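User: Quick sanity check before I run a bigger batch. Here is a single chain. Can you write out its predicted 3D structure?
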Amino acid sequence: METRARSAWTFAPSTLLVPLLLLACSCGGGAQPGNSGAGGGSRAGSGGARVGGAGGNGNGGTGGATGGNGSGGDGAGTGGANAGTGGMPAPDGGNTDGPRGTPADAATDVSDTRRSDAASDAPAVNPGAPALTIFSIGDSTMADFDPATVPIQRGWCQEFPQFIVGEDTRFVNAAKSGLSSKTFALEGYWAAVKALIRPGDYVFIQFAHNDETDLGIEGASGRGTAPFGAFQTYLTTYVNESRALGAIPILITPLVRLFFSGTTITPTGQHNLTGNGVVVGNGDYVAAMKEVATLNNVPVIDMTASTKALVEQFGPVDAKALLYLQTDNTHLTGLGATMFAGLVAREMIAKNILRARLNPAMDLIASPSTLRFGDRYLGTTLDQTAVFTGMALAAGNGNVTVTAPAGFLASATPAGPFAAQVQFPYTGGRLSPTEVVVRFQPAAVRAYAGQLTVSAPGATTRSIALSGNALTAPTGVAASVVYALTADTTCTAPANLASCTPERFSNTYARDYLAVGTFAPIQRISLLNPAAPDSWPLEIRANPARYVEFAVSPAAGRSMVIDTVSLFAGAAGGSGMGFRISSSKQGDFGTSIDLGNFPINVSNVVNLITLSLIIPLAAGETLYLRVYPWYNTVATAKFLGLQTLTIHGTVP
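Assistant: Done. Predicted structure follows.
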């Protein structure tokens, strides 16, 4: 439900005919990114959140958001894209400047964790198939990056959900920048993932880039592993412990580094360090992973081979311009991440892995698969955003046409104009990731449901399911309950209309009321930890026992309809702070609704979050709101900043 301004993403024109390449290459293909994954700017969900900037950048930096974009990763060789056999890999970086990027939260609304492309020709998911979660563990080549702060870099697992079909498959990207197979376990990330795994889930496992830190041995860095030593040991641990939890592990060999010798990727680029003068014996990490797969009867996806074939077809110049970052030869652009994710999806389908849950067609992609607008009052509107991408479109120039069903309109921009049909021109057979704003504008009191179609000449027509319900707006007196959160935990409510109780804390406390960036004063919330004051454990999702709570009720004998919740919120002191906002009419939150999930927040930046909703409260009922903070690595002196929580509604 979080909304952020999506940075424009473009790529330079190339003489390479990408659509032709996609059709000719049996190993895969792809589309440009839809910025999926946590914190990627999804506006879908039942509430339709809006986020506006407030405050400014402080001294805390953007450590987590920029994790993985460090100077390492393109090898010590000086030849750039043509490093030849002398180019040796360096770690992918990103773990020294701040917290690493945050994985998606398995418990958030569908729009954040389930992306699909319901193509008419895609394999259909069995309606009776049980829901499952796919977890991915690995390094920055897989990880999520916030488009607001890292506009170019993407991990391939950040884009993989574009190829998932159906609402019963969730994707949790737990990959972390800078980690090897060894440090992912030793730093506690694997333990955090294991706590979420349920029988029937899948675990994608890809390591090697940072295992090569010490050039094939376990050296002083603490990250490096020997390919036929600790590397195999940790891979085997992930396999065995996944199976012990009833999950299905899938080993995925690492994507190639952009190390060319002439027109081919070097052995070093394929993660084979044999003969480099440091590693003893066989230094081939891909062969080591395949041996683990054979010994343990584990499916393996040879991403090294498929990305090698694709990158070699692009060649060193076009691959550098389109697929990899300009700053190194390891990390990916959005286009590279999406194309590489497509290679994995296609190979999985070919090997009958998750076949019914994956969509191999990649000429035109639209996501998410569903936009739910929930209840809205007649005479009001609600906007949400979808993203579509075209790669293998009809040659030359044309238009992608977006058509909205009754009760909905579309526009290229939030400012409009809105119409039932909007066209987006493309050139050269491709269209970079493009947002379309979808507006729910009901004309009568009734339920609305239909398909937003995205079509182009010769391409598979995509559809996004839209739904909303129009209600008659209540008549009465407007009432707002306000928690200022500038000096204390008290609240104010209009007499004879509503009541509220002071802010309540569970395993948290109000540390102080100070400035966060340029925004002041603001309540800074910290972890209540008597054993280690203000120390946060490593977590990848909200802890249900740690929260701050607010409560509002209609005045005695009266009812109330809540229609808006707004607050200023942000991270203070570090970019690893995430939080979730939930509501319930039950004090124990036995039944609750997630209103918004915000896993990626830039240090010392405060945003205005507005949640549009309809929650009726009968006489005697109470609406409880909880904000659940967590931090994505072990840390101290990190805070969640809150200010001016306003709960607005109508009292008949």
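The chain has a mean pLDDT of 80.

User: Great, the batch can go ahead then.
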